[in-house]
Amino acid sequence: MKCNVCGRQTINEEANFCEYCGSSFREHMQQQPMNQMPPYNQGNVFNQGNPYNQGNAYNQENPYGAGSMPNMMPGANQQSDPNMVQPEKPTSFLDWLGTYGIMLIPCVGWLVFIVMLFIWGFGNKASASKKNWARATLIFAGALLLILIAYLAMVMPLYMDVYTQMMNGTFDMNSYYNSINGIN
Question: How far apart are CA 12 and CA 2, in angstroms?
């Protein structure tokens, strides 16, 4: 079946709409080329503000109007609009593997990883998904660091005497064991 609007051939002979431009294949509907569509607010109340509606009565099968459904098919004939945002390429498996592989660098891997998180999170070259992931990872790591600092601030005073005795060489394991177990 051939579309009257875009001129492309559709394999499915029983289709109701063109899989490339979304226009109806119904014979009783008047088809107009995309460049001859009526201006805004022409026709009935259902097509107000929709320049792609054909000005006909409300179409129950295609409420968007013939030829106005967004084109979701990959490889379809799309006009190149400089204002249209192109979908970004997804981050590949090997890219993610390399991202985590940075931490395997001996001695400085964790430091390089943190620096790279800042570069990916706040730079301009990373994809949006990697940028969001880097920012979330930085927030998560910062929260864990604050929890660790709070824990150490609570625990360190409890063991400071033991640490000082160990460093001075005056630590007695038996007296420490007896004090923990409540034995005098």
Answer: 10
Distance separating alpha carbons of residues 30 and 141, to the nearest angstrom: 61
CA distances from 175 to 24, 161, 182, 184 (A): 90, 13, 10, 9
Mean pLDDT (the chain, rounded): 75
d(CA 15, CA 88): 31
Helices (H), 19-172: 93-101, 109-122, 128-168
Measure the CA dihedral 80/86/91/94, to 10°: 10
Q: Where are the domains of the chain?
A: 1-77, 93-181
Task: Quick: pLDDT tens for 113-127.
Answer: 999 999 999 998 888
What SS3 class is residue 17? strand
At residue 112, does pLDDT exceed 50?
Answer: yes
Dist. CA 101–CA 106, nearest whole Å: 11
